[in-house]
Amino acid sequence: MKTEKISEFTINRLSIYLRCLNLLAASGVTTTSSQALAEQFQLNSAQIRKDLTYFGEFGVRGVGYNVTELRAHLNEILGLDRQHRIGIVGAGNLGMALANYRGFEHECFQVAALFDKEASRLGITSRSGVVVHHIDELDEVVARQRIVIGVVAVPAENAQEVVDRLTESGISAILNFAPVRPNTRPGVQLKTMDLAISFESLSYFLSDSGQDGPTPP
Amino acid sequence: MKTEKISEFTINRLSIYLRCLNLLAASGVTTTSSQALAEQFQLNSAQIRKDLTYFGEFGVRGVGYNVTELRAHLNEILGLDRQHRIGIVGAGNLGMALANYRGFEHECFQVAALFDKEASRLGITSRSGVVVHHIDELDEVVARQRIVIGVVAVPAENAQEVVDRLTESGISAILNFAPVRPNTRPGVQLKTMDLAISFESLSYFLSDSGQDGPTPP
DNA sequence: AATTGTGAATTCCTTCACAGCC
DNA sequence: GGCTGTGAAGGAATTCACAATT
To answer: Is A152 a domain residue?
Structure first.
Protein backbone atom coordinates (compact mmCIF):
# COMPACT_ATOMS: atom_id res chain seq x y z
CA MET A 1 0.00 0.00 0.00
CA LYS A 2 1.59 3.24 -1.21
CA THR A 3 0.84 6.75 -0.01
CA GLU A 4 1.28 8.03 -3.55
CA LYS A 5 -1.55 9.98 -5.13
CA ILE A 6 -3.76 7.63 -7.10
CA SER A 7 -5.11 8.84 -10.40
CA GLU A 8 -8.76 8.79 -11.34
CA PHE A 9 -7.78 6.74 -14.39
CA THR A 10 -6.64 4.00 -12.06
CA ILE A 11 -9.84 4.14 -10.00
CA ASN A 12 -12.00 3.91 -13.12
CA ARG A 13 -10.04 0.90 -14.28
CA LEU A 14 -10.56 -0.83 -10.93
CA SER A 15 -14.29 -0.74 -11.70
CA ILE A 16 -13.58 -2.38 -15.02
CA TYR A 17 -11.37 -5.05 -13.48
CA LEU A 18 -14.06 -5.79 -10.93
CA ARG A 19 -16.62 -6.29 -13.67
CA CYS A 20 -14.31 -8.66 -15.51
CA LEU A 21 -13.74 -10.63 -12.33
CA ASN A 22 -17.48 -10.81 -11.71
CA LEU A 23 -17.91 -12.31 -15.16
CA LEU A 24 -15.15 -14.82 -14.53
CA ALA A 25 -16.58 -15.75 -11.14
CA ALA A 26 -20.01 -16.22 -12.69
CA SER A 27 -18.55 -18.76 -15.10
CA GLY A 28 -16.78 -20.60 -12.34
CA VAL A 29 -13.20 -19.41 -12.88
CA THR A 30 -11.31 -19.36 -9.59
CA THR A 31 -7.84 -18.19 -10.60
CA THR A 32 -6.64 -15.77 -13.24
CA SER A 33 -3.59 -13.72 -14.17
CA SER A 34 -2.94 -10.24 -15.46
CA GLN A 35 -2.15 -11.73 -18.86
CA ALA A 36 -5.33 -13.77 -18.99
CA LEU A 37 -7.41 -10.74 -18.02
CA ALA A 38 -5.60 -8.57 -20.53
CA GLU A 39 -6.23 -10.99 -23.37
CA GLN A 40 -9.86 -11.70 -22.59
CA PHE A 41 -10.89 -8.13 -21.96
CA GLN A 42 -8.46 -6.19 -24.11
CA LEU A 43 -6.50 -4.57 -21.35
CA ASN A 44 -2.78 -4.14 -20.69
CA SER A 45 -1.35 -6.66 -18.26
CA ALA A 46 1.34 -4.36 -16.86
CA GLN A 47 -1.26 -1.73 -16.22
CA ILE A 48 -3.48 -4.17 -14.34
CA ARG A 49 -0.58 -5.16 -12.12
CA LYS A 50 0.51 -1.58 -11.55
CA ASP A 51 -3.02 -0.42 -10.75
CA LEU A 52 -3.49 -3.22 -8.24
CA THR A 53 -0.19 -2.72 -6.47
CA TYR A 54 -1.19 0.81 -5.46
CA PHE A 55 -3.47 -0.95 -2.99
CA GLY A 56 -1.61 -4.06 -2.00
CA GLU A 57 0.04 -7.23 -3.20
CA PHE A 58 -2.92 -9.35 -4.15
CA GLY A 59 -1.21 -11.83 -6.43
CA VAL A 60 1.04 -14.84 -6.05
CA ARG A 61 4.13 -14.93 -8.27
CA GLY A 62 4.05 -17.79 -10.68
CA VAL A 63 0.37 -18.37 -10.00
CA GLY A 64 -1.72 -15.24 -10.51
CA TYR A 65 -4.72 -13.88 -8.65
CA ASN A 66 -7.48 -15.66 -6.79
CA VAL A 67 -10.69 -14.40 -8.35
CA THR A 68 -12.78 -14.40 -5.18
CA GLU A 69 -10.11 -12.69 -3.11
CA LEU A 70 -9.37 -10.05 -5.69
CA ARG A 71 -13.07 -9.28 -6.10
CA ALA A 72 -13.36 -8.84 -2.36
CA HIS A 73 -10.37 -6.50 -2.31
CA LEU A 74 -11.67 -4.39 -5.18
CA ASN A 75 -15.12 -4.22 -3.63
CA GLU A 76 -13.60 -2.95 -0.45
CA ILE A 77 -11.23 -0.51 -2.13
CA LEU A 78 -14.09 0.99 -4.12
CA GLY A 79 -16.26 1.15 -1.03
CA LEU A 80 -18.82 -1.20 -2.53
CA ASP A 81 -19.03 -3.20 0.66
CA ARG A 82 -21.15 -0.41 2.14
CA GLN A 83 -24.53 1.04 1.27
CA HIS A 84 -24.48 4.49 -0.30
CA ARG A 85 -27.75 6.34 -0.20
CA ILE A 86 -28.52 8.59 -3.12
CA GLY A 87 -30.72 11.66 -3.45
CA ILE A 88 -31.74 12.77 -6.93
CA VAL A 89 -32.56 16.44 -7.49
CA GLY A 90 -34.80 16.94 -10.52
CA ALA A 91 -37.74 14.60 -11.03
CA GLY A 92 -38.04 15.14 -14.77
CA ASN A 93 -37.43 12.47 -17.38
CA LEU A 94 -33.79 11.95 -16.52
CA GLY A 95 -34.24 12.04 -12.76
CA MET A 96 -37.09 9.53 -12.88
CA ALA A 97 -35.19 7.32 -15.33
CA LEU A 98 -32.27 7.23 -12.90
CA ALA A 99 -34.59 6.54 -9.98
CA ASN A 100 -36.07 3.60 -11.89
CA TYR A 101 -32.71 2.38 -13.20
CA ARG A 102 -32.45 -1.33 -12.56
CA GLY A 103 -28.68 -1.19 -12.42
CA PHE A 104 -29.04 0.08 -8.85
CA GLU A 105 -31.34 -2.56 -7.55
CA HIS A 106 -28.84 -5.28 -6.73
CA GLU A 107 -26.02 -2.96 -5.90
CA CYS A 108 -24.80 -0.98 -2.97
CA PHE A 109 -26.28 2.23 -4.34
CA GLN A 110 -29.80 2.96 -3.24
CA VAL A 111 -31.98 5.84 -4.32
CA ALA A 112 -33.49 7.08 -1.08
CA ALA A 113 -35.16 10.32 -2.13
CA LEU A 114 -36.13 12.53 -5.04
CA PHE A 115 -36.44 16.32 -4.99
CA ASP A 116 -38.02 18.90 -7.25
CA LYS A 117 -39.27 22.44 -6.99
CA GLU A 118 -42.33 21.98 -9.22
CA ALA A 119 -45.49 21.51 -7.21
CA SER A 120 -46.88 19.26 -9.94
CA ARG A 121 -44.16 16.69 -9.33
CA LEU A 122 -44.36 16.47 -5.55
CA GLY A 123 -45.63 13.19 -4.23
CA ILE A 124 -44.87 11.26 -7.41
CA THR A 125 -43.16 7.99 -6.57
CA SER A 126 -40.59 5.93 -8.43
CA ARG A 127 -41.28 2.32 -9.30
CA SER A 128 -39.69 1.26 -6.03
CA GLY A 129 -41.80 3.70 -4.03
CA VAL A 130 -39.37 6.59 -3.50
CA VAL A 131 -41.33 9.82 -3.20
CA VAL A 132 -40.59 13.27 -4.66
CA HIS A 133 -40.02 15.89 -1.96
CA HIS A 134 -39.93 19.64 -2.35
CA ILE A 135 -36.36 20.88 -2.68
CA ASP A 136 -36.86 22.96 0.48
CA GLU A 137 -36.97 19.71 2.43
CA LEU A 138 -33.49 18.80 1.16
CA ASP A 139 -31.57 19.40 4.38
CA GLU A 140 -34.04 17.57 6.53
CA VAL A 141 -34.43 14.54 4.25
CA VAL A 142 -30.69 14.24 3.54
CA ALA A 143 -30.04 14.12 7.27
CA ARG A 144 -32.93 11.81 8.12
CA GLN A 145 -32.21 9.39 5.26
CA ARG A 146 -28.42 9.59 5.68
CA ILE A 147 -27.97 10.46 2.00
CA VAL A 148 -24.32 10.80 0.96
CA ILE A 149 -24.47 11.10 -2.84
CA GLY A 150 -26.45 13.78 -4.63
CA VAL A 151 -27.42 13.52 -8.29
CA VAL A 152 -28.05 16.72 -10.24
CA ALA A 153 -30.68 16.10 -12.91
CA VAL A 154 -31.92 19.64 -13.45
CA PRO A 155 -31.45 22.07 -16.36
CA ALA A 156 -28.09 23.82 -16.74
CA GLU A 157 -29.45 27.12 -15.40
CA ASN A 158 -30.25 25.61 -12.01
CA ALA A 159 -27.30 23.26 -11.66
CA GLN A 160 -24.97 25.54 -9.71
CA GLU A 161 -27.71 26.46 -7.26
CA VAL A 162 -28.55 22.80 -6.72
CA VAL A 163 -24.88 21.93 -6.22
CA ASP A 164 -24.68 24.68 -3.61
CA ARG A 165 -27.76 23.46 -1.80
CA LEU A 166 -26.54 19.87 -1.86
CA THR A 167 -23.21 21.02 -0.45
CA GLU A 168 -24.99 22.98 2.28
CA SER A 169 -27.03 19.94 3.16
CA GLY A 170 -23.83 18.11 4.05
CA ILE A 171 -23.63 15.70 1.15
CA SER A 172 -20.11 14.48 0.26
CA ALA A 173 -20.33 13.48 -3.41
CA ILE A 174 -22.24 14.80 -6.39
CA LEU A 175 -22.90 13.31 -9.80
CA ASN A 176 -23.88 16.10 -12.15
CA PHE A 177 -25.75 15.53 -15.40
CA ALA A 178 -26.19 19.18 -16.32
CA PRO A 179 -23.95 20.48 -19.11
CA VAL A 180 -22.03 22.86 -16.86
CA ARG A 181 -18.92 22.60 -14.71
CA PRO A 182 -20.15 23.68 -11.29
CA ASN A 183 -17.87 24.98 -8.57
CA THR A 184 -17.65 22.98 -5.39
CA ARG A 185 -16.08 23.24 -2.00
CA PRO A 186 -12.96 21.17 -1.59
CA GLY A 187 -13.97 17.98 0.18
CA VAL A 188 -17.07 17.51 -1.93
CA GLN A 189 -16.42 15.06 -4.75
CA LEU A 190 -17.95 16.17 -8.02
CA LYS A 191 -18.24 14.17 -11.18
CA THR A 192 -19.97 15.45 -14.31
CA MET A 193 -21.52 13.26 -16.98
CA ASP A 194 -21.83 15.64 -19.86
CA LEU A 195 -24.11 14.36 -22.59
CA ALA A 196 -23.57 17.43 -24.73
CA ILE A 197 -19.81 16.95 -24.77
CA SER A 198 -20.24 13.31 -25.75
CA PHE A 199 -22.56 14.06 -28.62
CA GLU A 200 -20.41 16.93 -29.81
CA SER A 201 -17.34 14.75 -29.70
CA LEU A 202 -19.10 12.13 -31.84
CA SER A 203 -20.18 14.89 -34.18
CA TYR A 204 -16.56 15.99 -34.56
CA PHE A 205 -15.37 12.52 -35.43
CA LEU A 206 -18.23 12.14 -37.89
CA SER A 207 -17.19 15.28 -39.69
CA ASP A 208 -13.56 14.41 -40.17
CA SER A 209 -14.08 10.66 -40.51
CA GLY A 210 -11.19 9.01 -42.23
CA GLN A 211 -8.97 9.82 -39.23
CA ASP A 212 -7.82 6.26 -39.11
CA GLY A 213 -5.91 5.66 -42.30
CA PRO A 214 -4.16 2.34 -42.89
CA THR A 215 -1.43 1.57 -40.38
CA PRO A 216 2.09 1.97 -41.83
CA PRO A 217 4.42 -1.09 -41.85
CA MET B 1 -3.98 23.95 -39.27
CA LYS B 2 -1.77 21.00 -38.35
CA THR B 3 -2.03 17.43 -39.55
CA GLU B 4 -1.02 16.22 -36.11
CA LYS B 5 -3.27 13.76 -34.32
CA ILE B 6 -5.72 15.63 -32.14
CA SER B 7 -6.55 14.20 -28.76
CA GLU B 8 -10.04 13.58 -27.51
CA PHE B 9 -9.21 15.78 -24.53
CA THR B 10 -8.79 18.68 -26.89
CA ILE B 11 -12.08 17.95 -28.65
CA ASN B 12 -13.95 17.77 -25.37
CA ARG B 13 -12.51 21.10 -24.34
CA LEU B 14 -13.62 22.69 -27.58
CA SER B 15 -17.20 21.91 -26.50
CA ILE B 16 -16.51 23.67 -23.23
CA TYR B 17 -14.98 26.69 -24.91
CA LEU B 18 -17.98 26.92 -27.21
CA ARG B 19 -20.33 26.93 -24.25
CA CYS B 20 -18.35 29.69 -22.58
CA LEU B 21 -18.44 31.74 -25.77
CA ASN B 22 -22.18 31.20 -26.06
CA LEU B 23 -22.60 32.60 -22.56
CA LEU B 24 -20.41 35.59 -23.39
CA ALA B 25 -22.27 36.23 -26.62
CA ALA B 26 -25.59 36.05 -24.78
CA SER B 27 -24.41 38.80 -22.46
CA GLY B 28 -23.26 40.96 -25.33
CA VAL B 29 -19.49 40.47 -25.12
CA THR B 30 -17.91 40.76 -28.57
CA THR B 31 -14.21 40.25 -27.89
CA THR B 32 -12.35 38.10 -25.41
CA SER B 33 -8.91 36.65 -24.78
CA SER B 34 -7.52 33.36 -23.60
CA GLN B 35 -6.72 34.97 -20.26
CA ALA B 36 -10.19 36.40 -19.83
CA LEU B 37 -11.75 33.02 -20.66
CA ALA B 38 -9.36 31.23 -18.34
CA GLU B 39 -10.19 33.52 -15.43
CA GLN B 40 -13.94 33.54 -15.90
CA PHE B 41 -14.33 29.84 -16.48
CA GLN B 42 -11.42 28.39 -14.56
CA LEU B 43 -9.44 27.14 -17.50
CA ASN B 44 -5.79 27.40 -18.48
CA SER B 45 -5.06 30.12 -20.98
CA ALA B 46 -2.12 28.36 -22.63
CA GLN B 47 -4.25 25.31 -23.09
CA ILE B 48 -7.02 27.28 -24.74
CA ARG B 49 -4.55 28.79 -27.20
CA LYS B 50 -2.86 25.46 -27.89
CA ASP B 51 -6.18 23.68 -28.42
CA LEU B 52 -7.38 26.33 -30.85
CA THR B 53 -4.21 26.45 -32.90
CA TYR B 54 -4.63 22.81 -33.88
CA PHE B 55 -7.41 24.10 -36.11
CA GLY B 56 -6.25 27.50 -37.22
CA GLU B 57 -5.11 30.91 -36.09
CA PHE B 58 -8.31 32.46 -34.88
CA GLY B 59 -6.90 35.22 -32.72
CA VAL B 60 -5.25 38.58 -33.24
CA ARG B 61 -2.07 39.23 -31.31
CA GLY B 62 -2.43 42.04 -28.85
CA VAL B 63 -6.22 41.93 -29.20
CA GLY B 64 -7.66 38.49 -28.57
CA TYR B 65 -10.52 36.60 -30.17
CA ASN B 66 -13.71 37.82 -31.75
CA VAL B 67 -16.49 35.99 -29.94
CA THR B 68 -18.83 35.61 -32.91
CA GLU B 69 -16.10 34.42 -35.23
CA LEU B 70 -14.64 31.97 -32.77
CA ARG B 71 -18.08 30.53 -32.05
CA ALA B 72 -18.63 30.03 -35.75
CA HIS B 73 -15.27 28.30 -36.11
CA LEU B 74 -15.89 25.98 -33.18
CA ASN B 75 -19.38 25.17 -34.39
CA GLU B 76 -17.95 24.20 -37.73
CA ILE B 77 -15.01 22.23 -36.30
CA LEU B 78 -17.36 20.24 -34.09
CA GLY B 79 -19.75 19.67 -36.98
CA LEU B 80 -22.55 21.48 -35.21
CA ASP B 81 -23.44 23.39 -38.34
CA ARG B 82 -25.11 20.24 -39.64
CA GLN B 83 -28.06 18.16 -38.48
CA HIS B 84 -27.20 14.78 -36.97
CA ARG B 85 -30.05 12.35 -36.79
CA ILE B 86 -30.10 9.99 -33.83
CA GLY B 87 -31.63 6.55 -33.35
CA ILE B 88 -32.09 5.28 -29.81
CA VAL B 89 -32.12 1.54 -29.19
CA GLY B 90 -33.93 0.65 -25.99
CA ALA B 91 -37.21 2.37 -25.17
CA GLY B 92 -37.05 1.80 -21.43
CA ASN B 93 -36.70 4.55 -18.87
CA LEU B 94 -33.35 5.77 -20.05
CA GLY B 95 -34.13 5.58 -23.76
CA MET B 96 -37.38 7.48 -23.35
CA ALA B 97 -35.72 10.02 -21.06
CA LEU B 98 -33.12 10.67 -23.74
CA ALA B 99 -35.79 10.88 -26.43
CA ASN B 100 -37.62 13.47 -24.37
CA TYR B 101 -34.47 15.32 -23.33
CA ARG B 102 -34.98 19.03 -23.96
CA GLY B 103 -31.29 19.62 -24.45
CA PHE B 104 -31.72 18.30 -27.99
CA GLU B 105 -34.61 20.44 -29.05
CA HIS B 106 -32.76 23.57 -30.07
CA GLU B 107 -29.65 21.85 -31.19
CA CYS B 108 -28.32 20.10 -34.24
CA PHE B 109 -29.04 16.68 -32.76
CA GLN B 110 -32.43 15.28 -33.53
CA VAL B 111 -33.90 12.03 -32.28
CA ALA B 112 -35.42 10.49 -35.41
CA ALA B 113 -36.34 7.00 -34.24
CA LEU B 114 -36.61 4.66 -31.26
CA PHE B 115 -36.17 0.90 -31.33
CA ASP B 116 -36.99 -1.92 -28.96
CA LYS B 117 -37.56 -5.64 -29.12
CA GLU B 118 -40.41 -5.77 -26.60
CA ALA B 119 -43.80 -5.94 -28.31
CA SER B 120 -45.33 -3.98 -25.43
CA ARG B 121 -43.23 -0.93 -26.28
CA LEU B 122 -43.81 -0.80 -30.02
CA GLY B 123 -45.81 2.18 -31.19
CA ILE B 124 -45.16 4.23 -28.06
CA THR B 125 -44.18 7.78 -29.02
CA SER B 126 -41.90 10.32 -27.40
CA ARG B 127 -43.21 13.74 -26.45
CA SER B 128 -42.16 15.04 -29.82
CA GLY B 129 -43.94 12.22 -31.65
CA VAL B 130 -41.06 9.86 -32.42
CA VAL B 131 -42.38 6.32 -32.58
CA VAL B 132 -40.85 3.09 -31.23
CA HIS B 133 -40.04 0.59 -34.00
CA HIS B 134 -39.18 -3.06 -33.65
CA ILE B 135 -35.43 -3.61 -33.67
CA ASP B 136 -35.81 -5.74 -36.80
CA GLU B 137 -36.73 -2.60 -38.70
CA LEU B 138 -33.40 -1.03 -37.75
CA ASP B 139 -31.69 -1.26 -41.14
CA GLU B 140 -34.66 0.04 -43.03
CA VAL B 141 -35.43 2.95 -40.69
CA VAL B 142 -31.77 3.97 -40.33
CA ALA B 143 -31.49 4.20 -44.10
CA ARG B 144 -34.82 5.89 -44.66
CA GLN B 145 -34.34 8.40 -41.84
CA ARG B 146 -30.65 8.97 -42.62
CA ILE B 147 -29.69 8.23 -39.00
CA VAL B 148 -25.96 8.60 -38.31
CA ILE B 149 -25.69 8.32 -34.52
CA GLY B 150 -26.94 5.30 -32.58
CA VAL B 151 -27.59 5.40 -28.85
CA VAL B 152 -27.40 2.16 -26.88
CA ALA B 153 -29.84 2.28 -23.96
CA VAL B 154 -30.32 -1.44 -23.35
CA PRO B 155 -29.13 -3.72 -20.52
CA ALA B 156 -25.48 -4.77 -20.47
CA GLU B 157 -26.30 -8.29 -21.71
CA ASN B 158 -27.67 -6.98 -25.00
CA ALA B 159 -25.27 -4.11 -25.61
CA GLN B 160 -22.74 -5.92 -27.79
CA GLU B 161 -25.48 -7.36 -29.98
CA VAL B 162 -27.05 -3.93 -30.40
CA VAL B 163 -23.68 -2.39 -31.23
CA ASP B 164 -23.19 -5.07 -33.89
CA ARG B 165 -26.62 -4.48 -35.39
CA LEU B 166 -26.11 -0.72 -35.40
CA THR B 167 -22.77 -1.21 -37.12
CA GLU B 168 -24.39 -3.51 -39.69
CA SER B 169 -27.05 -0.92 -40.35
CA GLY B 170 -24.36 1.48 -41.52
CA ILE B 171 -24.35 3.91 -38.62
CA SER B 172 -21.08 5.80 -38.05
CA ALA B 173 -21.15 6.76 -34.38
CA ILE B 174 -22.46 5.13 -31.23
CA LEU B 175 -23.08 6.48 -27.76
CA ASN B 176 -23.28 3.57 -25.36
CA PHE B 177 -24.92 3.80 -21.94
CA ALA B 178 -24.54 0.14 -21.03
CA PRO B 179 -21.85 -0.69 -18.46
CA VAL B 180 -19.73 -2.67 -20.90
CA ARG B 181 -16.94 -1.85 -23.32
CA PRO B 182 -18.23 -3.15 -26.64
CA ASN B 183 -16.01 -4.02 -29.56
CA THR B 184 -16.48 -2.03 -32.74
CA ARG B 185 -15.22 -2.01 -36.25
CA PRO B 186 -12.60 0.62 -36.93
CA GLY B 187 -14.37 3.52 -38.57
CA VAL B 188 -17.31 3.41 -36.18
CA GLN B 189 -16.88 5.97 -33.41
CA LEU B 190 -17.85 4.62 -30.03
CA LYS B 191 -18.23 6.55 -26.82
CA THR B 192 -19.39 4.98 -23.57
CA MET B 193 -21.06 6.85 -20.74
CA ASP B 194 -20.63 4.49 -17.87
CA LEU B 195 -22.85 5.32 -14.91
CA ALA B 196 -21.54 2.45 -12.86
CA ILE B 197 -17.94 3.64 -13.17
CA SER B 198 -18.97 7.14 -12.14
CA PHE B 199 -20.84 6.01 -9.07
CA GLU B 200 -18.09 3.62 -8.09
CA SER B 201 -15.50 6.33 -8.47
CA LEU B 202 -17.53 8.60 -6.18
CA SER B 203 -17.84 5.71 -3.76
CA TYR B 204 -14.07 5.30 -3.73
CA PHE B 205 -13.47 8.96 -2.96
CA LEU B 206 -16.12 8.83 -0.24
CA SER B 207 -14.31 5.98 1.45
CA ASP B 208 -10.89 7.54 1.58
CA SER B 209 -12.09 11.14 1.75
CA GLY B 210 -9.45 13.40 3.20
CA GLN B 211 -6.03 12.06 2.18
CA ASP B 212 -4.95 13.09 5.68
CA GLY B 213 -6.08 9.99 7.52
CA PRO B 214 -4.76 6.80 5.91
CA THR B 215 -6.43 3.61 7.07
CA PRO B 216 -4.19 1.25 9.07
CA PRO B 217 -3.39 -2.11 7.44
C1' DA C 1 1.03 47.36 -24.14
C1' DA C 2 -1.28 43.42 -24.80
C1' DT C 3 -2.05 39.04 -26.50
C1' DT C 4 -1.30 35.27 -29.62
C1' DG C 5 1.11 31.11 -31.16
C1' DT C 6 4.63 27.84 -29.93
C1' DG C 7 9.14 25.41 -28.62
C1' DA C 8 10.82 23.84 -24.30
C1' DA C 9 10.03 22.19 -19.76
C1' DT C 10 7.27 19.73 -16.81
C1' DT C 11 4.07 16.65 -15.14
C1' DC C 12 1.39 12.72 -15.64
C1' DC C 13 0.23 8.20 -17.57
C1' DT C 14 1.41 3.96 -19.88
C1' DT C 15 4.32 0.34 -21.33
C1' DC C 16 8.58 -2.25 -21.21
C1' DA C 17 11.54 -5.45 -19.32
C1' DC C 18 13.36 -7.95 -15.79
C1' DA C 19 14.60 -9.21 -10.89
C1' DG C 20 12.43 -11.85 -7.51
C1' DC C 21 9.49 -15.36 -6.05
C1' DC C 22 6.50 -19.48 -6.26
C1' DG D 1 8.41 -22.40 -16.14
C1' DG D 2 5.32 -18.83 -15.14
C1' DC D 3 3.73 -14.82 -13.02
C1' DT D 4 3.95 -10.79 -9.97
C1' DG D 5 5.67 -6.37 -8.61
C1' DT D 6 8.42 -2.50 -10.02
C1' DG D 7 12.25 0.68 -11.62
C1' DA D 8 13.22 2.68 -15.86
C1' DA D 9 11.90 4.13 -20.39
C1' DG D 10 8.73 6.01 -23.40
C1' DG D 11 4.78 8.66 -24.68
C1' DA D 12 1.06 12.09 -23.91
C1' DA D 13 -0.92 15.96 -22.04
C1' DT D 14 -0.30 20.21 -19.65
C1' DT D 15 1.97 24.32 -18.41
C1' DC D 16 5.68 27.66 -18.82
C1' DA D 17 7.80 31.38 -20.87
C1' DC D 18 8.90 34.19 -24.60
C1' DA D 19 9.48 35.69 -29.46
C1' DA D 20 6.37 37.48 -32.78
C1' DT D 21 2.76 40.50 -33.91
C1' DT D 22 -0.67 44.10 -33.88
So the answer is: yes
Q: What share of chain A is helix, strand, coil (3-state, %, to 5)?
A: 45, 15, 40
Kindly report the backbone phi and psi dihedral angles of residue A19, in degrees, each rounded to the nearest multiple of 5, phi listed first.
-60, -45
Residue type, B179: P
- Asked if B97 and A93 come within 8 Å (Cβ–Cβ), the reply is yes
**pLDDT (tens digit, 9 = 90+) per residue, A139-165?**
999 999 999 999 999 999 999 999 999
Total domains in the fold of chain B: 2
Which one of A101, A189, A195 has the shortest CB-CB distance to B103? A195
Say how far apart CA B96 and CA A21 lie, in whole Å.
32
CA distances from A179 to A36, A116, A171 (A): 39, 18, 21
Taking alpha carbons only, the member of B191, B139, B56, B47 closest to residue A206 is B191
The predicted pLDDT at position A98 comes to 94
Closest CA to B116 of B164, B84, B167, B151: B151
Query: What single string gives the DSSP state of each residue in B35-92?
Result: HHHHHHHT--HHHHHHHHHTT----BTTTBEEHHHHHHHHHHHTTTTS-EEEEEE--S
Judgement on whether residues A146 and A100 belong to the same structural domain of the protein? yes
Report pLDDT for B211: 43
Distances (CA, A) of B216 to A1, A2, B203, B208, B213: 10, 12, 19, 12, 9
Q: Which nucleotide is nearest to A58 (CA to C1')?
A: D4
Q: Is A217 exposed, middle or buried (0-12, 13-18, 19+ CB in 10 A)?
A: exposed
Instruction: Give the tens place of pLDDT for each residue, B13-45.
Output: 999 999 999 999 999 999 999 999 999 999 999
Q: Are residues A120 and A180 in the same domain?
A: yes
Nucleotide minimizing C1' to CA distance for residue B60: C4
Distance from CA of A63 to the nearest CA of B (A): 24
Q: Quick check: A78 and B204 CB within 8 A?
A: yes
Q: Domain residues for B138?
A: 84-196
Question: For B93, what's the count of Cα atoms within 13 Å in the CB-facing half-sphere?
Answer: 16
Do B90 and B150 lie in one domain? The reply is: yes
Residue with CA nearest to C16's C1' atom: A46
Verify whether the Cβ–Cβ distance A102 to B201 is below 8 Å: no
Work out whether the CA dihedral A67, A70, A74, A80 comes out positive or negative: positive
